[in-house]
Amino acid sequence: MLGSLRSVGIVDTICINETTGHLVDGHLRMVLAERHGVTSLPARWIAVSEAEEAEVLLTFDWITSLATYDRDNTDALLRMVHTGDEDVQAMLAEMAETQGIIPPDFQPIDISEQPRLDQLEPKWVICPCCGEKFDLRTIENG
Fold first, then answer.
1. Whole-structure pTM over 0.85, yes or no?
2. Is residue 126 a contact partner of residue 133, using CB atoms and an 8 Å limit?
3. Greatest CA separation for the chain
4. Contacts of 122 (CB under 8 A, 6+ apart)
5. I need a surface site. Which of 11, 44, 71, 110 has the fewest CB within 10 A?
């Protein structure tokens, strides 16, 4: 969890029952935030009875744990994620191994294996400010 927070930040709210004032979801995020000096977390408030709160506490994480991974989607996502956080990399490697997926090898390739810019199809990027289109083949690295 800490690796994910370091890598992409907080992407979900904590959940508090306004009836009881109890934390219903997000305990680990709260602990890590406190340990690392984070003073503000996004929260959502729900209003449920004490009995409903108990049901939420018993079922919320359990239901999530019942989810299954789609191997093809997981493989595609693993190929899209590039994180510099070692903890997240280790978690993703374990996830790939559990799913029987061979993670992509992101080692540098030899220059002879790299495509020539003049042989590539145009790849356009659009400036969000002015809307102008740019052909990435004409943009030099550096």
1. no
2. yes
3. 67
4. 135, 136, 137
5. 110
